[in-house]
Amino acid sequence: MKKGIIAVLFVLIAVGVSNAQVTAIRAGRIVDPETGTVASNQIILIEGQDIKAIGANVAIPPGATVVDLSRETVIPGMMDAHAHLCMNTQHKRDGGRYYFTTLLDSNAKPRSRVRSMRSRCLSMASPRCVTSATKAIMRASKSAR
Fold this sequence. Notes:
CATH class of the largest domain: Mainly Beta
CATH superfamily of the largest domain: Urease, subunit C, domain 1
Number of helices: 3
Order of helices and strands: HEEEEHHEE
Strand content: 25-35%
Oligomer: single chain
Structural class: alpha+beta
Shape: extended
């Protein structure tokens, strides 16, 4: 399923590059979060940046790029938050100083090592936050103390 979501993101990025391009995605299943239903064997037709049609009997125009996700599930509105959960308007002021991909492995052992790393991170001039998929360590700027 993760591969399917990644593939859809690549398709949507590619569609944004060329507005005239027509893309058809063959989805094995599509989840509709509003109704809670799952539809099987669907086609998503995208023209430029717009989704034009979704359904089992949507005709794929000649010359369209076809993405086969027939073994995958497509879920709209999902995003991979990665580790940049604290991005906000401060990033311009901070000059991107806190864009770390991985700063601390939360599964690191022993606990004293994790606490030591946390203390060192919080004593730095930046970052303003240290994030993971489940936790965020925040601190006020030194000028706010």
